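Hello Y.,

Per our agreement to keep a running log of every chain we model this quarter, I'm adding this entry. I've kept the format consistent with earlier entries: sequence first, then predicted structure.
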Amino acid sequence: MFQSSIDFDFGSELSEPPQKRALENSLFYSSPTFNSQVGKVERSCVQMLRVRVYRNLNKPEFFSILAMEGVNKGKVCGYARSVLLENAKFKVSIKSRERVLRDNRRNVHAFIEAILVDASNDIQPLNGSEKCVTYNPFVCDTFFVRNTSEAFMDDVNEALLQGSDVFVL
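Predicted structure for the entry above:
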């Protein structure tokens, strides 16, 4: 039997797709899902799922991850201290913000809709080049840049949520 080996050199025409950024001690380390106890129910959070993420009012060091599609659509599917998102859109419900100002009582009315890339329960190191964005209904009716108080309504390619801030990468 005739056997041949032919090597083709495609040069830079075929390049590998860009690697997704990963967080330290990722909750997705060994699987594309992680489980969280949500009340009395255990739910799965799926990587690359369309989600809505907001700061948890009862545990402010955590972010709640609400599924926008899949089996847990419309339900909180997980919690994490650091959440990495892509294609992020910043949203604020004006009516709910007005209710916060009128009643002086907190409610969830500001969030980010995006694709869930990664999550971790560890605070991630930053390099200092990130734009720090935050939200406070008593200061501004939109998200704003922390050090300038300039309104921030842009959609962003990549964002890291941790602490009380969103870091635009």
